[in-house]
């Protein structure tokens, strides 16, 4: 009887080069095979040790290591086969009622196996084979012709682990089999199918698997913990460890024989790469009363190269041999057997026709509405995207403009700090002209807004700029009443050539007025003040090193001559009888000079209506400015209210 789900799987079996992998503790056993013509030809056996710092529970890390190892061996991209150890699988032999419909068999197996699982059914991946196992015979009340199967279940995290290893390694996982079944396929290829009852003892790091096969079926399988002798163990300790393994294997086989009505083992094969296989075979034979030998696959499998630990590759070899045998039933937890879904074609055709009619009727009424709705939604979505792009584009444009300005500034090749220092030394005295604003413009120019006492000072500025080598564009001169006498205002655009040479070392310090206190605000009144034009003898107390106060300094709590209490009249408004200092002949020269200047500004004539009087008034202001006395004895409040011409 054909089984459609089985033939479908076998038809898609991979043909070509495959790499069978077996995890033996922290070692990877790799068997490279070429599958063709219904058989597998083994090309190479290789062992790869994992690094000590590699976490073998981390699937991604193991996969990366595996991918690198296969790349170094020239196996990059070769599909792989893997198997689940016996300790991670649950076996359940089942005898199911006969059924004429094999498509229902997978459901029956899953239903029966789920009853005996030690974990939740939704976490299980279940697969099975269609052979009689464990020597089961139908009970007297069973219907003759029952179906014998062997079901095996593993948890989904186990399957996911191997999937992730293959994914991280960058290879395709063709099949995830079962290690006892792989051992059985290799033993059959080694010893032949007519060997009676054959026991296989497979030793790995930390585990021993004991399997019994008979007539092409796995009749017994058990995993037991294995303690290996230390590398430096003496002969006595080594023999004791081997005897412990012999007892564990013998106990497992004796329990199996008790179930099998005292039938004997005909032959024993010992396989593994632990180093105690030969001693175990020597001691186990007499204990079981059966021939016992170390598995050597070299001759039977016609290996080109046989490593010293070739018997340790029994599982990897079995995976490769089983992949090449199209008739052999296999476990595959990657693609477990599933029931075939049968479809009623006539019913499906009738439903499809009815659905088509309904669809045509509904679409006739709703098609236009749906189209308009989708078009409107699309327009709204695109408008939203457009608005967001416009909003973001404004920021981009603003940033691009700033970047362009910065790049243009840098590409001009002008050292503006040096240029500003040179311009400062080029300017006329701050008593005649001072700058009110400065702005760097494009194309190597700087725009200045200045105020001057007269038109001659503006002309003098132009002559100085031309003499210093600057090109400039003067602006329109305007006049306006200024309380300090700077009635002329204009703007000048100074043009700076890119290759203009500046002899900054030849410049003299810019002279400052005697009463300039601008530097005093930045150094806290300490140090020599020679650059400001004030001798050290004129410093207020605390500026020099002398601990004595100057004669003009007042004790704490007293008012200086320039300060006045709130509500008190100014010095220009008080009569001579109200000034005690004048009655004593102790008048501050700067205070008297300032009173005269204030009085003069009170009677300032209108320049437009009385030009002659204005010229006479300007002459008097200039003359009085030249007579300005030293302010060494003035208070700090006086220094903070001096004429703006004293600062630039």
Task: Give a brief rundown of this model.
With 648 residues, the protein is of the alpha+beta class. The chain is built from 15 helices and 18 strands.
Keyword list:
15 helices, Nucleotidyltransferase, domain 5, 20% strand, 5-stranded mixed beta sheet, 648 residues, Gyrase A, domain 2, alpha+beta, disordered C terminus
Structure write-up:
With 648 residues, this protein is an alpha+beta fold. The protein has four domains: 4-324, Nucleotidyltransferase, domain 5; 351-408; 416-506, Gyrase A, domain 2 (2-Layer Sandwich); 519-554 and 580-646, no CATH class. 36% of the residues lie in helices and 20% in strands. It has helices spanning 4-11, 59-72, 105-114, 156-169, 179-191, 235-259, 277-288, 314-324, 345-411, 416-426, 455-467, 580-583, 589-602, 611-626, 636-639; strands at 16-24, 27-36, 39-49, 80-84, 90-96, 124-129, 147-155, 173-178, 198-204, 207-214, 217-225, 267-272, 292-294, 433-441, 445-452, 471-474, 478-479, 488-495. The strands form four sheets. Strands 3-2-1-4-8 form a five-stranded mixed sheet, sandwiched between helices. A hairpin with a 2-residue loop joins strand 1 (16-24) and strand 2. Helix 2 packs across helix 4. The longest helix has 67 residues, at 345-411. The radius of gyration is 53 Å and the shape is elongated. It starts with a helix and ends in a 9-residue tail after the last helix.
